[in-house]
Amino acid sequence: MKTTKSFYISARNKRGVFIFIVLSLVVILLPRLIMALKEKPHYVITSELVQDLKKDSKSRFEKRSFQYGKNPKKKFKVPSVRFNPNKYSKNDWMKLGLSEKQANVVLKFTSRGIYSNEQLKKIFVIPEQLYNLIKDSTFYEPKSFTNDFKNESKVEKQIVLVEINSASQEELESIPGIGSFYAKNIIKQRQRLGGFYKKEQLLEVWKFDGEKYDAIEKYVKVNTQEIQKIKLNSVKVEELKSHPYLDWNKANSIIKIREKKRGIQNYR
User: What is the pTM of this model?
Assistant: First the structure.
């Protein structure tokens, strides 16, 4: 019986594979061989080359400075007379060398009032070079503390405290910053707790954060006599566990202690 090889390559195919391998090696190695034989250039550093590099670097720096609005050659002017920065107009600041945008920023600060060169220096759009030119030409009017104290006293007199354990929704809404949304949430939390024993418990009201508390804290007060107390010697575990500060395990433990001691004495 005649047997045949399962894999057979003819002599012609072998030559083709050999030629393909040789050509692949030539294509891969020839560029590397050419680069290795090519003479590498030699650079000679001369004083002329160094000067050219310095000029090129300076030119690039000046170009970047111009692009970012930091022109080193920009000149600022000294005011001709002493002035109050709070009364300077946009055109006045621009005459000193500020741009229109910089002048507008300065006006935002001066509109609230500044009362010293230290405050003037903190205005970030005023360059140090300009500040040094104008700092000896400025003067400021003293701040009227008397008027401010009177205005604050008037505001304090207008505050009406709201007792949050007995207040209606309408009374809670009269507090500045408390609308119907927060008023309803305060009443819901008050009903769950049985009443607030301190103002800080308002932070437990849904959506009520520290910023809101700081804003209304001076308008509210707490009367602990208005708190609806729980009768521990007769309350059921289902009712007790519904309190926000208790869960089933704590409520059940209280009931067991009550049963073991045949009543809880001297509790508040």
Answer: 0.41
User: Residue 255's Cα: distance from chain center in Å?
Assistant: 49
d(CA 162, CA 82): 52
Q: What is the pLDDT of residues 79-101, one digit of tens each?
A: 888 999 999 999 999 999 998 98
Angle ∠(182,187,192) on CA atoms, nearest 5: 125
Which phi and psi (to 5°) does residue 253 adopt?
-65, -40
> What is the Cα–Cα distance from 30 to 86, expressed in whole angstroms?
78
What single-letter amino acid sits at 64? Answer: R
pLDDT digits (tens, 9 = 90+) for 205-258: 998 888 888 888 999 999 989 888 888 888 888 888 888 888 888 888 888 888
Q: Does position 66 have pLDDT exceeding 50, yes or no? A: no
